[in-house]
Design goal:
Layout (H helix, E strand, L loop, with lengths): L4 H5 L12 H11 L15 H11 L21 E3 L5 E3 L1 H4 L1 H10 L5 E8 L16 E5 L8 E10 L10 E8 L5 E6 L13 E7 L2
Helix pairs in contact: 2-3
């Protein structure tokens, strides 16, 4: 891996910015969407929320850790740290989709705002109201009211996965689906990638500057 200047900026967990900057999170997400930042973070077999959390931190979202240690199931906590000799700790909200949803919905202190629920043919909408770079998309794939996946919005463009079919522009997201499988600049609803889209419920969370 060539360590360019943007790479060096995010090589290690950075202190929080003065305010939340979605562009910084989007820059981080684009940088590590296809190659995980293993210098700074452990990768999980289901790595989507870990990746989203990293992008949120890169955008300036401060960690919340009043208890220390990990894996911490308290949904009010949101943190990750690396200790000596390869040790690390984390909250479940940092790595688990349902815990992450509960944390940002109920414990964000106004930092995050729920802005929409989309299902069925609404998933074709190119620009969901209020969604933009730095926001997070939560997916319930099978309609069982349990969040299964998250992605990080990186801005408006054309999904490269769709160019051979209909190539419609819209809000794009970056994801990790596992520690080895990644998604770069996908249409926000993952419509072209989700065979069960008719069962899927999608929830949007806006992060406030």
């Amino acid at each position: 891996m060539i360590l360019t200047i943007p790479t060096l900026l995010f090589l290690f967990p950075a202190p929080a910015l003065a305010s939340y900057q979605g562009w910084a999170g989007a820059t981080y997400a684009d940088l590590y969407a296809r190659s995980p930042n293993q210098y700074a973070y452990y990768t999980w077999p289901n790595d989507c929320v870990n990746f989203t959390s990293q992008a949120l931190q890169a955008a300036g979202e401060p960690m919340v850790n009043s208890t220390g240690g990990g894996a911490n199931p308290d949904p009010a906590q949101w943190f990750y740290f690396r200790g000596p000799e390869g040790s690390f700790g984390y909250s479940m909200s940092w790595i688990n989709a349902e815990y992450s949803w509960v944390h940002w919905l109920q414990y964000s202190g106004g930092k995050a705002t729920f802005i929409g629920w989309y299902s069925g043919y609404n998933q074709y909408i190119q620009q969901p109201a209020g969604l933009g770079a730095g926001d997070v998309v939560f997916y319930d794939w099978n309609g069982d009211n349990i969040i299964d996946h998250t992605s990080y919005d990186v801005g408006y463009g054309v999904d490269p996965n769709l160019n051979k079919s209909w190539g419609v522009p819209g809000q794009l997201t970056d994801d990790h689906t596992s520690d080895t499988t990644t998604i770069y600049h996908a249409f926000w609803s993952h419509l072209a990638l989700n065979q069960d889209w008719q069962k899927t419920n999608i929830f949007l969370m806006h992060f406030n500057v």
